[in-house]
Amino acid sequence: MRAYGFTEIGGPDRQTFIDVPVPQPGPDELLLRVRAAGVNPGDWRLREGSYGHRGPTVLGREVAGTVEKVGPGVSEFALGDEVFGGCPGMVGGWAEHALTIVSFTARRPDGLSPEAAAALPVAAATAYDAMNRFDLPEGATLLVNGAGGGVGVPAVQLAMARGLRVVGVASPAKHPLVARFGGIPVAYGAGVEDRVRAAAPDGVDAILDMVGGDALRTVAALLDDRSRLTSLADKPLALQLGGFELVRDRSTAVLTELARLVRAGRLDPYVTDVRPLSDARAALELVEQGHATGKVVLIP
Questions:
Q1: 230-276 pLDDT, tens per residue?
Q2: Can you give the residue range of the structural domain that contains 235?
Q3: The model scores a pTM over 0.85
Q4: Residues 200-222: tens digit of each pLDDT
Q5: For position 292, which CATH number holds?
Q6: CA distance linking residue 7 with residue 57, whole number of Å
Q7: How far is it, in rounded angstroms, from Cα 268 to Cα 259?
Q8: 3-state secondary structure (DSSP) of residue 156
Q9: Is residue 291 located within the same domain as residue 233?
Q10: Total of domains in the chain
Q11: Any idea what the CATH number is for the domain that residue 191 is in?
């Protein structure tokens, strides 16, 4: 089958369309005919070697599709089910067929499009896991550093759905997006501490960071209890500063709850760019360069 991935670790020049066999599902796996697949920063980080796959590897870590085959012993799903979920290992979703992990797959309910469903398992689910880990009381203030990005946008929405106050640090071009979902936008750069204090005079109770480095050090100084600090971009620094490493709950229960929130109007997957699989290179370039506003989804 035709798929898009990379042949060896490196830059965009290692990306290409490749011909690979249709994968066969093992235990705890489903084979899907892909209807939509999400694009994430993790895809170019995978190509650069961050997760240990050397290639050739098919990109894409989240998909929605139709079950065509179930693995040995799988009883949770049946042929023809419309589902969405996360992809295992080297068998990504930027292809005509893909595998998903049964324990991280959910049925796609009526009213949730394949494009919207494919945007949930990575970024939105990560934001959801962070909200659960923070477990902040209603009325508390969350600082989202990188609020205009793929994880930041659902994080703002999920925090608002829990009754939190959200301060979102983002580039000025993305301030309307942060405000659209209820966050208080604050600009990056020199003086950000003063701008956050002005937006949250009673202080911040937790920080979810997607930037890392000096930007993380700066906003971390605003938090008295560093046990409520985590970074998806700079885990070692977050730990050094007294924070925690977010452990993902890759489960059907999380995906089912995200689908419920979407249908209830409390979470917008914010899919703004739907492209054919033939445009995979340009789609990943958009995400890698940080120019995407909203989720990018590919259609085989």
A1: 999 999 999 999 999 999 999 999 999 999 999 999 999 999 999 99
A2: 123-240
A3: yes
A4: 999 999 999 999 999 999 999 99
A5: 3.90.180.10
A6: 7
A7: 10
A8: helix
A9: no
A10: 2
A11: 3.40.50.720
